[in-house]
Specification:
Number of strands: 18
Strand content: 25-35%
CATH topology of the domain at 4-69 and 103-173 and 273-345 and 385-398: FAD/NAD(P)-binding domain
Bound molecules: flavin-adenine dinucleotide
CATH superfamily of the domain at 4-69 and 103-173 and 273-345 and 385-398: FAD/NAD(P)-binding domain
Largest sheet: 7 strands, mixed
Number of helices: 14
CATH architecture of the domain at 4-69 and 103-173 and 273-345 and 385-398: 3-Layer(bba) Sandwich
Low-confidence stretches: 396-400
CATH class of the domain at 4-69 and 103-173 and 273-345 and 385-398: Alpha Beta
Shape: globular
Distance between the termini: 11 Å
Oligomer: single chain
Length: about 400
């Protein structure tokens, strides 16, 4: 078993990993690029096995308490008439609204608070270079903080991971989904309640409004569009793109665009997945979005990050040889990741129809999916594969 582990990234996966590594007897340092703990982010889902990992960390109740309170989702037309309604219980808590819905910043904060006494946290730094000396460990040079030697380095740096680039060069590319999404917070409107509301406009556009526990509303504007360089524009230019492309979208979009103009937490991304043939090299491994981001449309990124952290730490506790541990981590996680990346079954095109006819058809199918007799079949189409992993029990490794 290796003892000194550097984890990079302090969002969801990094702090969860730090907690489990410490639990299994390792010394952990977490280095986060941002100068301070990063709040922010919108509603994320914790599903199935991800929830079980939180339970094993003793955090399930804390996370449930901090949840957004979203009770389900309705699909509406331009007159705000409900065309299909999914209560969060409909698919056993594993449908469009997960049983555990929480703001990313709130979940990350809970995990950080839970692990900060168990690991040394360093903010405002990142890896400049790595020198893997094999048996002698790995020499890490930091951008600000000089050099240090570790037994292992694990990158939990999200989809844009620079350590992944150091390891694999530019061969690891995002697989784009022909979707762009803009996220921001706006004042609560009179129709905003405990249900999320999803509105489709022709041209592959959708507006999603979701409740949060802060008395505001979280908005997501989605645009079906092949990669065209929007991701390289400045924030103001990206806002302008959305303003122009959604100008005639109808429904409550004018107030949403007003909120967009004033939003100071606007975040815009080209949606895609990260697929790699291997998640480790020598003494360095990748975990969470850095290794296998499934995209926000899958609703599985956070669960994969939590489960990946648990399995990676557990396998490191089971094997004296880190290479065997990395191989076991990959063997256990790979099928689960493959399934998660196979979603959404309601693919981006179906979720954002281009024509009015497509929207009517989509709403009719969704409405059908709410009917009890059809629900099981619909569940197979809609549900992410949150339960489809047998979580190993690393209990014996703990007491070793
Ligand atoms: C600010 C923010 C907002 C988000 N908002 C949403 C959202 O609204 N909806 C959604 O579905 N998903 C969102 N996500 C992504 C979501 O958190 C992940 O899909 C999922 O939880 C898995 O998390 P992760 O910890 O693996 O990666 P991430 O959550 O992406 O975290 C990566 C962390 O690593 C840090 N980092 C990056 N590079 C380096 C480096 N070289 N060295 C050290 N640290 C580094 C980042 O600052 C970040 O804290 C957001 C992520 C972030 C960071």
């Amino acid at each position: 078993m290796s003892h000194d582990v550097l984890v990079t990234g302090a969002s969801v996966t990094g702090p969860a990993l730090a907690w489990w590594l410490h639990r299994f007897g390792m010394n952990v340092t977490v280095v986060e690029r941002s100068p301070a703990f990063r709040d922010g982010g919108q509603n994320i889902d914790v599903r199935g096995a991800g929830r079980e990992v939180l339970r094993r960390m003793g955090l399930e109740q804390a996370v449930a308490k901090a949840g957004t309170g979203e009770q389900g989702i309705v699909f509406v037309d331009e007159n705000n008439r409900v065309k299909a309604e999914f209560d969060k219980e409909v698919f056993g808590g594993n449908g469009p609204t997960a049983e555990l819905e929480i703001l990313r910043g709130d979940l990350a904060r809970i995990l950080y608070e839970h692990s900060r006494d168990r690991a040394e946290y360093v903010f405002g730094d990142s890896i400049e270079s790595l020198d893997d000396g094999g048996e002698g460990g790995i020499e890490v040079t930091f951008k600000k903080g000089g050099a240090r030697r570790f037994d292992l380095v694990i990158a939990a740096e999200g989809i844009g991971s620079s350590t992944r680039r150091l390891l694999f060069g530019d061969t690891a590319k995002r697989r784009p989904f022909n979707l762009y999404m803009g996220y921001f917070t706006l004042p609560k409107g009179e129709n905003d309640g405990v249900f999320a509301r999803w509105y489709n406009a022709p041209g592959g556009r959708s507006v999603l409004l979701r409740p949060d526990p802060k008395g505001t509303t979280r908005a997501v504007l989605t645009l079906q569009q092949a990669p065209c360089g929007y991701e390289d524009l400045s924030l103001d230019e990206q806002k302008q793109v959305l303003k122009e492309r959604f100008a005639d979208a109808g429904w409550e979009t004018p107030r949403v665009l007003q909120g967009l103009a004033q939003a100071d937490d606007f975040y815009f991304e080209m949606i895609g997945q990260m697929r790699l043939e291997c998640w480790s090299k020598g003494r360095t491994a990748l975990v969470g979005d850095a290794a296998y981001a499934p995209s926000p449309v899958s609703g599985m990124g956070t669960s994969l990050g939590l489960v990946g952290a648990y399995v990676l730490a557990g396998e490191l506790s089971r094997h004296d040889d880190h290479a065997e541990a990395f191989a076991a981590y990959e063997r256990i996680m790979r099928p689960y990741v493959d399934q998660a990346q196979d979603v959404p079954k309601l693919g981006p095109r179906i979720a954002n129809p281009r024509t009015r006819f497509g929207i009517v058809l989509q709403q009719a199918v969704l409405n059908l999916a709410t009917k009890p007799g059809i629900r099981n079949l619909a569940g197979k189409l809609i549900e992410p594969p949150a339960e489809k992993i047998d979580l190993p029990d690393y209990g014996r490794a703990v007491s070793r």
